[in-house]
Amino acid sequence: MGCNANKTKSLSTDTVAVDTIKKISMVDSAKLMLDSSDFYMRKGVKKEMSVEATRTKVGIFMDKFFNIYGQLSPADTAEVYEYRLKSLNELIDLQVEQTKKESNR
After folding, report:
1. 11 to each of 6, 14, 16, 22, how far by Cα in Å?
2. 66 to each of 29, 45, 60, 90, 91, how far by Cα in Å?
3. Is 68 within 8 Å of 26 (Cβ atoms)?
4. Which of 13, 33, 89, 104 is close enough to 65 for a disulfide, judged by CB 3.0 to 4.6 Å?
5. Residue 9 pLDDT > 90
6. 32-59 per-position pLDDT tens digit
């Protein structure tokens, strides 16, 4: 009985560890998709890519992002949402800066 109790405890600890790794990797994967999308958005804002090429690349990563995002727990979605808002604010700042540069030409 003592051995079985230790084995059960070990299995539940392993399950928790695996679940934690899955959670971390899902959150990190969602953030990676956002970062990849942002990379192409920045290129588009700076006119380093055509609008169509930017849409295509961004669309690929955002489709993957929303697939992952839909699988996250509410707490994880909040974390990823905050990360996304921060990123969107940075993109807006870049767009404003780029617009100012273009208007000064």
Report:
1. 9, 5, 9, 16
2. 11, 22, 10, 20, 19
3. yes
4. 33
5. no
6. 999 999 999 999 999 999 999 999 999 9
Q: Scan for tokens 């928790």, then name that residue.
A: 16
> CA angle at residue 101 from 86 to 33, to 5 degrees?
30
Cα–Cα dist 49/29, whole Å: 25
- Taking the C-alpha atoms of residue 51 and residue 30, their distance in angstroms, rounded to an integer, is 24
Residue 55 contacts residue 87 (beta carbons within 8 Å): no
**C-alpha of 90 from chain center:** 15
Dihedral, CA atoms, 63, 67, 73, 79, nearest 10 degrees? -20
Confidence of residue 71 (pLDDT cuts 50, 70, 90): very high
Q: Which two tokens stand for residue 71?
A: 């699988």
Cα 40 to Cα 58: distance, rounded to the nearest angstrom:
6
CB atoms within 10 A of CB 41: 24
